[in-house]
Amino acid sequence: MTELPFPLAGPPEPQAAEAAHRLFASGGADFLKGVVAMDGLPPADRVEICFAGRSNVGKSSLINALTGRKGLARASNTPGRTQEINFFTLGDSHYLVDLPGYGFANAPVAVVERWQALLKTYLAGRASLRRAFVLIDARHGIKPVDDEIMTLLDRSAVTFQAVLTKADKIKAKDRDALLAQVRGRLAKHPAAFPEIVLTSAEKNEGINTLRALIATLP
Question: What are the respective helix, strand and coil percentages of the chain, to the nearest 5?
Fold first, then answer.
């Protein structure tokens, strides 16, 4: 049987699971700073992973589930409210980076333009950035605004991996159609990592897999 392009990531191998346990089990994740300009970035002295996604896709919930810290990343009830690049330390070896939600932003046009320019500059110029995780709401699949950020990552030569959020909110009968749509759109992006992660922060689905991916990035 021919393997589907962009298969779903499976449970981690024992060695990767152990690496993830060492990295995440200590509970050593802390908020470092919110950055509004490139000169505010912390030193690029550790492995860096960023999370990008439409407003209200569930980035904060996913980061909290990954780190086991419920209030670490704060979600806003107003789409587009978060306009900083938020850095979190994970032990003394990693940064987790929460990028501003893109899409419909409840902010003045000039503010949105500055924030989008910061995002583009960060993605293009951060040498320590190992991978971007692009979060996609499993109920909606890839939207044009997601394609835009993926194209930016292509142009910036930043490897990105699609992470489907809120998997518990989609019916089993609709999952195949969702995956077909996502696979078709990812195939157009040369920077896309050839594996999809299916997650639910609420049900803890896919969290161990994502932790292992982060822990084993070179």
Answer: 35, 20, 40
Residues β-bridged to residue 90: 29, 94
In a domain, 6, yes or no: no
Q: Please indicate, yes or no, if residue 183 is contained in any of the structural domains.
A: yes
Residues in the chain: 218
- DSSP letter for 83, please: -
What is the tens place of the pLDDT at every residue in 28-41?
899 999 988 889 99
Q: How many CA atoms lie within 13 A of 206 on its CB side?
A: 20
The CATH code of the domain that includes 40 is 3.40.50.300
Domain count for the chain, please give it. 1
Task: Report d(CA 121, CA 37) in Å as an integer.
Answer: 10
- Per-residue model confidence as pLDDT tens digits over 76-91: 544 444 578 999 999 9
**How far apart, in Å, are the Cα atoms of 28 and each of 23, 25, 32, 72, 201?**
8, 8, 12, 11, 19
pTM (predicted TM-score): 0.91
Domain of residue 67: give its range: 14-215
